[in-house]
Amino acid sequence: MSTVSTVRAVAPRKIHFFVCTNERPEGSTMPCCAARDSRALLRAFQAEHARRGYPRGVKVSGSTCLTTCQCGPTVVLYPDALWYGGVTHADVSELFDTHLSGSGPVERLLLPDDMQVW
Ligand code: FES
Description:
By secondary structure, this protein is an alpha+beta fold. The chain has a single domain (10-110), classed as 3-Layer(aba) Sandwich (Glutaredoxin). The protein is 20% helix and 22% strand. It is built from 2 helices and 4 strands; from the N terminus they run E-H-E-E-E-H. Strands 2-1-3-4 form a 4-stranded mixed sheet, covered by helices on one side. The radius of gyration is 16 Å and the shape is globular. The chain binds FE2/S2 (inorganic) cluster.
C-alpha cells in the first residue's frame, strides 16, 4: 500500500494577519475599512498565502473593526502585535516577505505609537 503525503513548507515563525473588513451602515459618520476596499485587500492576502503554498504557521483572517478606523485599511499581525494602517495591495507581498523572514516590521506602514492598541 502506498502512502501519499503532502509536504508543505513550514514558516520559520508563526504569523497571523488579521485584515479588517468592517463595513458601516450608509450614512455613518465613522470611516470604515470596507469603504477603502479592504475586502479586496483580504482577498489579496489570501491569494498571496495560496501563492506561497499555505506554509504552516501562517494564517490570514478577516476581522471586524479593529478600532483604528481612521487609518484603514487596518491590518494587525500576531503574535508580534504590530498594527499597520493604510495597507494596499502593493504592500501584501512585502508584508509576507518581511514577516516570514523575521526581518522586522514594515516601518512605513506602522501606525503611530499612540495608535498601537496593544
Ligand atoms: S473599520 Fe477597520 S479598524 Fe474600524
